[in-house]
Amino acid sequence: ASSTRCSACTAGSYQPNENATSCIPCPEGSYCPTGSTGPTACDPDTYAASTSNSACTACTTCSSGYREDSPCTATANRVCEQCPAGKYSSTTECIICPSGSFCPEGASQPIACAVSALVACPEGSSEPIIFNLGTYAVDAIQFNFTAVLEQVTSAEYNEDVALLVADSIAVALSVENSSVLVSRATANASASNYDLELRVTVPGNESSPEVEAVEDLLTVDAASTSSSATQTLRSEADTYGLDESIVAITMAGTDVEASNTSEIRVAQPGEFVDNGEVHLCSVGSFCAGSDQPQQLCNPGTYSDTEGAWECTLCGSNQYQGNRNASACENCPPYTFTASDGSFSEDNCKCLFGIENPSTDPNDAYCVCPAGTWQDDDELASAAAISSSDSLVYADVCVECSDGMICDQPGVTLDNLELEPDFYRSGIGSEIVTECVTPDLCEGGAGAGGDLCVEGNEGPYCEVCEAGRYKDSASGTCEKCSSANAAIATAGLVIGMVFILGLVFAFLYREKIFEFLERKLQAYSEANDAASPGSSTGTPSAAARMANASSLVSSLSRSGSTLSKTNTLGTPGSNTLGTPGTTASATDGATPGSTGATPGSTGATPGST
């Protein structure tokens, strides 16, 4: 018996079915290895442009100087094209050539232009542009015309006269003198005239207002132009040996021809030429004109406008450390520079003290040295004079007194710290004194109560805070206990009642005295009525009245004296108004004196 063997599909073909009698060609964009049951798509960046492919082909990579014209696909290879002039390529895309470089056709990278005022490479250059140094061309219209110089002989005419004629016409046409040129002069001996051929070049084109204005002056307004030119010519005629009364310029205005041209110009001061074009000098730069390039202002100078032909020195009390500056920096407050043109802040010198060693930009630049403090009032007075003389600031730094901590520079009355056992009443006070009681003033920053130990306040830290009392042995302020508080409260109430009584007696003393006098008078009269004619052992009514009057007068004097010296006052002062205080010894206030203290004469009920 015979048998049939199945054969594998050859490379480039495939067969997906059983019992097939043939294989199918592999389609475009795919490949089929031997024995394939189906086509396999080409991998990225590979292609198969025809059928029956056993493998895909790698796409072409564009080399430097070429760009991708069409991309790689599964069925087509990548197409590369050489970059045109003015562009370059290092990948798959042509890039425009940057300014300062040029790119010939097929360039793989830009080629740098030569560094020279004669060479320029604008963006997209295929080759360098070469210029004449310092010159540039502008579009212009050239007018050729004729004129007659009258009453000038061959003996009088020369090149200087030709220049005078050209300048006179330029004034009449309102153009630059250099724009007008006498190209030919022919003598007419019989008429003592010169026939002149001239030309004037005007920047612009046919439609430019300046060009149209000149054309009108040469044609329709030729007569007025001739008159204006003659007037200018005659004003200078004597200088050139011409008769000012007869010399004249006449233009017919009928033979004017215009043509396009270019005018070559030279950069003026404040200008520079770049790429064949003239530019105003930039801010921060200067331009000498002609063939000189634009240059940056040096440190210590600046230029704040366009078209500067030189840079300006920084003024006094200013500096500039960078090039290309449009302004100068002001020196820090209270500093000066020895001269103009300073190029560093180091040139700014302090008018007082020293430069602050601190690196914090928010700190003052000038401070008083260690061992001194800064008098801000003196500083303000010196600054108001607006002087750069350091002698004006001689009294700004003051030597520190005992108790001040001045071991670092920059001490002011606002940040002043004190040693322990020293005191000052407030911020801004320069008066520093020793405390009355040692150890009550702990020192440090601030003033007043800020300098006191805990529990103390007031002048020299001698006052106890509320809720404390002064220990008589140690002098320190101790916290009050509940018992102490109750005693203190009771004492305060009694004291207040006593004070109110004294106040009432003082305010109504006249009425009290009147009341006492009336009572004494009534008592005396009643006594006399009860003991008529008695004269032994008992004072008479007149004597008793005299004694009563004397008593009232004494009380009145005491009250008067009291009103002069004893006023309601503060704790601890020698005035009426506070429990436990002592009145003045000179005004009947000392214990034992009249009207002063319980137990003294005339002070308390039951006393003498």
From TrEMBL:
Keyword Membrane: yes
Signal peptide extent: none
TNFR-Cys domain boundaries: 25-80
Protein name: TNFR-Cys domain-containing protein
Region of interest: Disordered: 557-608
Keywords, alphabetical: Disulfide bond, Membrane, Transmembrane, Transmembrane helix
Entry keyword annotation includes Glycosyltransferase: no
Cysteine disulfide partners in this protein: C59-C72, C62-C80
Biased composition (Polar residues): 564-576
Species of the source: Phaeomonas parva
Segments passing through the bilayer: 485-508
Pfam family, one: TNFR_c6
TNFR-Cys repeat windows: 25-80
InterPro entries: Growth_fac_rcpt_cys_sf (IPR009030), TNFR/NGFR_Cys_rich_reg (IPR001368), Tyr-kin_ephrin_A/B_rcpt-like (IPR011641)
Skewed-composition ranges (Low complexity): 577-608
